[in-house]
Design brief:
nucleotide-binding, 17 helices, alpha+beta, binds guanosine-5'-triphosphate, metal ion binding, 3 domains, Globin-like, two-stranded antiparallel ribbon
Amino acid sequence: MPSTSPEQQAAAEWKLLLAQFPAPVAAQVRELATTHQAELAGYFYEQMLQDEQAMLFLTHEQVKSRLHGTLQQWIVSLFSSTGDETALLALITQQKQIGEIHARIKIPIHLVLRGARHLRERLFELLCRQPLDTEHKLFGQRLIGETIDLAMEIMSRAFSDANDRNSRSEEGYRLFSVAQHIGVEQERQRSALLDWENQLMFDLAVGQLAAQLPRLSGSEFGLWFRHKGAHAFQGSRETELILQSMQHIDEVLLPLFEKAVAEPNVEQRLHNLRTLREQAKGIVFHLDNLFEQANVLESGRDVLTRMLNRKFLPVILAKEVAYARQSERTFAVLAVDIDHFKQINDEFGHEAGDLVLQQLATLLSNHCRGGDYVFRMGGEEFLVLLVDVHQGQALGVAEKLRQQAEKERFRLSGEHDLQLTVSIGLALHDGHPDYQRLLRQADRALYEAKHGGRNRVVLARELPG
Ligand SMILES: Nc1nc2c(ncn2[C@@H]2O[C@H](COP(=O)(O)OP(=O)(O)OP(=O)(O)O)[C@@H](O)[C@H]2O)c(=O)[nH]1
């Protein structure tokens, strides 16, 4: 039996819903929504602006000017379906996309539901004013209510799916950002733990008093784990086990040696030592597991250039959008693309092309500040995110990068080197909550740079959406 997609299922439900209502009722509601679309959108906006949280999202000029139009279209489309499957599927896709946008710009779901409630209220009021009999009005109310509910259900589902994906990605990024050089850190912490153990064994051998024995939580390893490791690996079972072991060693096992010194009982002392070693070994075991899990997350970097890949782009952009909103600072994205890269591959071979990509990646990151980001978007395209810049500074950096790339002699294997140029599309964040728009602007500007003759920087012009 062919399986039905969630969209097909929703379309079937929507169709059933429509079938419950007499055609004249549906036509009446449709006409109501079409005639009053502007007023309904205005009412929605007015209500939502009374909410402080909603204001954050709605006061942006672009949102303000576009929202009325989009909202009107949405209201009309919601009630214009006659049950045709293709049209219903398109309507459902639209609800899903809206849910995904809400998740991307982080609009809390309760605000969306509140907006829907206001719309429903207003539509009910308008319906009541119509010269219709009571039964007709009741049918109309039900149709309005159930249609909006179904649309909200589809939207919310898309919202929570997208939100889950974002949270997983954010979680991954948190881990990734703290433990950037995972292999090195792992070795350092393993040996710090060993140092503590050696010191402890020595102190025990020379008969140091228990109170003076080195506590694990205060050791180099203990400090690192409590302050950084536990945060980086937050939420995993191993983290809890390591913290428990540390506490057990410091508070239960080490004090046992006091007694052993006062009353030398070799058997007991050996037993305590073995328990201590077991605990320390357990910590190493859990630590290795944690690092192994973190290693998987290293895939956030592009294997060839070691720059960030697309994986964390949504998380980082959403974070920068939120930061820009709070701090009233702007950031910029540069879409950087090597000109005629195919010719380099064709003339010198794919390996030479790879070497060029690596060197360009290094050049880009060397000429950015510590807070900026360089992503390899795929192929010969990079994305540079410049934090805390205004337009003039961003243009300056973009131009500097273009010139540096033009000046650079890219080494190939053997004695050869080559020169190349890059085209750059620059877009400045203007406060709009949806970062996809910014990426589209940068891409469009890059396209213009290519078509304008390459080896240039083009600043994105205001785009319609
Ligand atoms: N060596 C190497 N080549 C790659 C890699 N990824 C993509 N490419 C090549 O990059 C080339 C991109 O070519 P095009 O998209 O035609 O663009 P272009 O030649 O740079 O031309 P313009 O961008 O229009 O200036 C293709 O030949 C791809 O095969 C890679 O990882 N290594």
